[in-house]
Design brief:
Strand order of the largest sheet: 1-2-3
Order of helices and strands: HEEEH
Helix content: 10-25%
Distance between the termini: 10 Å
Largest sheet: 3 strands, antiparallel
Radius of gyration: 19 Å
Number of helices: 2
Length: about 130
């Protein structure tokens, strides 16, 4: 009954769709701030970031901004001493900085106490 999904097959599909739909693609940009629209309340007008390899700054103007950077790891202490800090399901470097982008832009955050708890079964993959 186990369905195996291997994520490496998704990246080329999504990348190809992005190439077809965009005039230009910017890779390796670390967004540091969201830009608010002075004319319209509660509206994001773009983002500011820098290229992590070259250090060049970029300012993006847009009609819509989607923040889809995932959750955060290591925000709670381990349940026991047997589970060391840093032993996490998500990427250990996922700091939750995307939450900070939205909070600094004035977003109201709700249900931040809810977390995904994935059930694990011994030998669940075969």
């Amino acid at each position: 009954w186990q369905i195996m999904i291997n994520g490496e097959s998704y990246k080329p599909i999504v990348a190809e769709a992005a190439k077809k739909s965009a005039d230009k693609i910017f890779n390796r940009i670390c967004v540091t701030h969201l830009l608010t629209d002075d004319a319209k309340e509660n509206r994001i007008a773009g983002a500011v970031g820098f290229n992590v390899r070259t250090g060049n700054y970029h300012v993006f103007k847009s009609k819509t901004v989607v923040v889809a950077a995932g959750g955060a790891s290591n925000i709670f202490k381990p349940r026991s001493v047997g589970e060391g800090a840093g032993r996490v399901w998500y990427a250990p470097w996922s700091s939750g900085s995307a939450y900070g982008l939205m909070i600094n832009a004035g977003a109201k955050m709700t249900q931040m106490e809810n977390r995904i708890v994935l059930a694990r079964f011994k030998d669940g993959y075969g």
